[in-house]
Amino acid sequence: MSHGRRIGRIKFIEPTPAVKERYFYRWNSKDLHFNPDVFPQLSGEGLFNSPSPINLEIGCGTGEYITGLAKSHPKENYVGIETSTRSVYFAIDLARKNRLENIRFIHGDFKLTYPLIPDNSIKTLILHFPDPNYGSKHIKHRIFDQNFLNKMNTAIISTGLISVVTDQKEFFFDMLEIAENDHRFTKTHTERFLDHYQSDVKSRFQLAWERINRPIYRFELTKS
Ligand SMILES: C[S@@+](CC[C@H](N)C(=O)[O-])C[C@H]1O[C@@H](n2cnc3c(N)ncnc32)[C@H](O)[C@@H]1O
User: Fold this and answer.
1) Which domain holds residue 186?
2) CB 10 less than 6 A from any atom of ligand 1
3) For 172, phi and psi rounded to 5 degrees?
4) Is residue 3 part of a domain?
5) Which residue, 26, 38, 89, 110, could crosslink 12 as a Cys pair with Cβ 3.0–4.6 Å?
6) 179 inside domain
7) Which SS3 state, helix, strand or coil, does residue 71 take?
8) How many domains are there within the chain?
9) Is there an atom of ligand 1 within 6 Å of 128 CB?
10) CB of residue 205 inside a 6 A radius of ligand 1
11) Is residue 93 part of a domain?
């Protein structure tokens, strides 16, 4: 499990069975590890019965960002994956309140889902404010590493995007260097990195850091 950061205590409501049925998948780590075939594919086919590639947020937290996107783009399909039960229940309640049809949430560890992600199944991969996992004991929990780019090279479509945002400068440059050394990917911007993130919808972490004027770093990749 990752070494996480939290903003406040999350007040959540456990979804009813009907709401869970509509939005929720619980993928436990033991089965993901030893028996992944018991789960559907992490794709449009597997989760929406649709051939369209999905937009996936890793570590979606309380879901403000991904539910905001799903609301603004009803023809696209969105998936949030999150290891915290409290956060994912909060996110599901946002989806329910907004009567969204185009979103699903997986309670599970993204790093164990690679065997379930088919080629050309992801349109946008969102990694915003991931846990930095500093220290030798925790670094293996970082999501953005060489294995991640190897997987994304086949999983995202040719015009697909990977968006990375964080307030953690040292962690940001670690990820940026990994990206810059992988010539299968190119940045979508001419600047080495972006020092802001303008978007119509904002996550809990983005709003929190903006309130105290904490710098935010971003890069966006596409396939070369
Ligand atoms: C700092 S929070 C950011 C949440 C959200 N993206 C935002 O911007 O508000 C990072 C989230 O990633 C989740 N997380 C960490 N490792 C994960 C993993 N391997 N798979 C899925 N979620 C993970 C944590 O539980 C936490 O909710």
Assistant:
1) 17-223
2) no
3) -60, -50
4) no
5) 89
6) yes
7) helix
8) 1
9) yes
10) yes
11) yes
120 in a domain, yes or no? yes
Q: What are phi and psi of 39, to 5 degrees?
A: -100, 155
**Alpha carbon of 222 to ligand 1 centroid (Å):** 22
Best probe residue, ligand 1, of 5, 129, 144, 207 (max atoms within 8 Å of C-beta): 129
Helical H segments across 73-145, by residue range: 85-97
User: Where is 5: in which H helix or E strand?
Assistant: none
Q: Are 103 and 23 in contact (CB under 8 A)?
A: yes
- Residue 49, burial from CB neighbour count under 10 angstroms (0-12, 13-18, 19+): exposed
How far is residue 104's CA from residue 106's CA, in Å, rounded to a whole number? 7
Cβ burial, residue 30 (10 Å; 0-12/13-18/19+):
exposed
Q: From first to last of its 224 residues, what are the pLDDT tens digits of the chain?
A: 455 677 777 787 899 999 999 999 999 999 999 999 999 999 999 999 999 999 999 999 999 999 999 999 999 999 999 999 999 999 999 999 999 999 999 999 999 999 999 999 999 999 999 999 988 889 999 999 999 999 999 999 999 999 999 999 999 999 999 999 999 999 999 999 999 898 999 999 999 999 999 999 999 999 99
Pull the structure tokens for residue 97.
Answer: 């309140």
